[in-house]
Amino acid sequence: ISLEESAEIRQKLAKEGVKFLSAPVSGNAKVIKAGKLTVVASGPKDAMDAVTPYLAAIGQGVSYVGDGELSRIAKICHNVMLGVVIQNLCEITVLAEKAGMKRHAFLDFLNKSVMGSMFTRYKTPALANLDFHVTFTPELLRKDIDLGLAAGRNLGVPMPTTSVARDLVQTMIGHGYDQDFSQLLLLQAKASGVKLEPENVEVGDGLS
Predict the structure, then answer these.
(1) Hey, which of 17, 29, 101, 197 would disulfide with 96, CB 3.0 to 4.6 Å?
(2) Which pTM does this prediction carry?
(3) CB-count exposure of residue 95 (10 Å: 0-12, 13-18, 19+)
(4) How confident is the model at residue 28 (pLDDT cuts 50, 70, 90)?
(5) What is the C-alpha separation between 8 and 168, in angstroms, rounded?
(6) Are 99 and 65 within 8 A, CB to CB?
């Protein structure tokens, strides 16, 4: 949710003597099942100290970033990066394919390199096999990018790369892609004159 909504909730709870800890997470149901959920929290430090053991029990890491709504901006920044990274990942994957590589072979190299991450490994099955079951919808990604751009305007931070990614997500939605946000791959392929086919290979997602 937005910083303003979170602050409003915090103020209402404070009037009732309730301490409010914002604790957004990174990870979907599959990430949770793999025990790799991460939490970013902000609010009163004594409240954080009291609940840290419980937050730590649901995943692999907890980060305390300070008071107020700082965890909200951390989560917004996180999801803005999600939009920028998936677009770039789709661009280079289509580039590799058009040059003659199999997508899964290129992604195998990338995932083993210094540039590989939990995210690139997790998205490899979708990009290789065109399995776009929903983990995060394009509409939700657009919403979070808009929150990030609004925060950038309010704080005087130029975000040109994010603005381009937002336009591409909007274009994807306009073209009717309504499953997972990784369908940006299809938009990129179409713009590149490439017809994609599922590779139907067994590739790991780095979670199991």
Answers:
(1) 101
(2) 0.89
(3) middle
(4) confident
(5) 32
(6) no
